[in-house]
Specification:
Two copies of one chain form a homodimer.
Chain A (H helix, E strand, L loop, with lengths): L5 H24 L6 H8 L3 H7 L3 H26 L5 H15 L1 H8 L14 H14 L8 H20 L8 H13 L2
The structure holds a DNA duplex.
Chain lengths: ~190, ~190
DNA sequence: TCGTAGATCTAGCGATGCTAGGATCCGGGC
DNA sequence: GCCCGGATCCTAGCATCGCTAGATCTACGA
């Protein structure tokens, strides 16, 4: 099937429709409601058509996760570029938490559900590398003498941990702001 | 059924057998292999018997999670008591990571799988409160002027984040040791 | 010894992810 | 214009899941 043909376009559209439907259903009703039959109904095709686009359910989660990572990257970048240089770590940390709160199902696809994505491995998708690059921009300046990449991993996981524990109700919500500010202060080592 | 009777004891034994079977299967084959039919086979009863002990599958995950939390608590306490005072934060942080690595399925039950446990809420199980108490013992001394409880939440979530991202292959494993050491250094604010 | 209450099992319901095999449609050669 | 072959799509079904209803069987007290 030559690229750019009508069939090719329709096929790509259908793939997008599946991903979008999965996102929408997951955000509104939770991931357990995202079933192959439900997706088929959303795109107005029969169930096996789904398997013409994705090998299995996990591949759909992975596709949504990739989309989420891309959006998270632009969200972080926007926050970084809008902030005064000395406020970049705060702004990006907050943007991370904001994103997770605004798109919990997307966040689940990225970090909680099994999605089969190879993050650290040799053939990690570019989207993942880009996202980490954005974190480097934000937090590498705080590394001081330490190894930058390691420092950024450390900072990211600290922010991530606070995000996931907070979102799952394991931390006191009323001090969320002060807790995140405290983390950034500690990371800045002022 | 009066407590202490033979029937009561047998019932309690069976409950324990279910929890143990769930743990064992989850550790050796992953949580998806833990099905009600499989558990029934393990305890040599028919499947509906499971529902005489647990309302649903999630309640079994919760029971395993509680068990895991208790074990994590003693693991952290042991590490704390064995360490020199100035090394307590390092020792406890490492113990946390060690525990997750040694019992990944247990850790999943506690933090990744839906278990319905109310962590932060008013009627959180005592086991959860005890576990957090252990974290307070370890990290509150680092709070300096800051609010202690908030500081401990911050430190815990940072360690937790590094643990979960590391275990799911999202951080470089070869620098795991230096990364955790770096976090503790930052938390100590030396 | 017998009747009843509780314990346990068999069987089944409505779902799930996923697949096989038949129908249908569409495009290119005569 | 027709016909044929391949791609595309659907119906139907398999095995398995969590969970439950109803029958059966066991054990204990009157």
């Amino acid at each position: 099937m030559e690229p750019g043909s009508r069939k090719e376009r329709e096929r790509a559209e259908r793939r997008r429709a599946i991903i979008t439907a999965a996102r929408d259903i997951a955000e509104s009703e939770g991931w357990p409601a995202v079933t192959t039959r439900r997706l088929a109904q959303s795109i107005e095709y029969s169930q096996p058509v789904i398997y013409g686009h994705f090998a299995n359910m996990q591949a759909i989660v992975a596709a949504v996760a990739i989309e989420g990572i891309v959006e998270l990257t632009v969200h972080l970048r926007r926050a970084r570029l809008a902030a005064a240089p000395e406020n970049i770590p705060d702004a990006v940390a907050w943007a991370y938490l904001d994103f997770a709160r605004a798109h919990p199902a997307l966040f689940d696809a990225m970090f909680t559900l099994p999605n089969g994505l190879d993050f650290g491995g040799p053939d990690a998708p570019v989207e993942l590398v880009d996202a980490f690059g954005e974190l480097i921009e934000a937090f590498a300046p705080l590394a001081k003498g330490e190894d930058q990449e390691t420092y950024v991993e450390m900072a990211w996981s600290a922010i991530h941990g606070q995000t996931v524990l907070g979102m799952s109700g394991r931390l006191r919500p009323q001090v969320a702001a002060e807790r995140m500010a405290m983390l950034v202060r500690v990371l800045k080592r002022e």
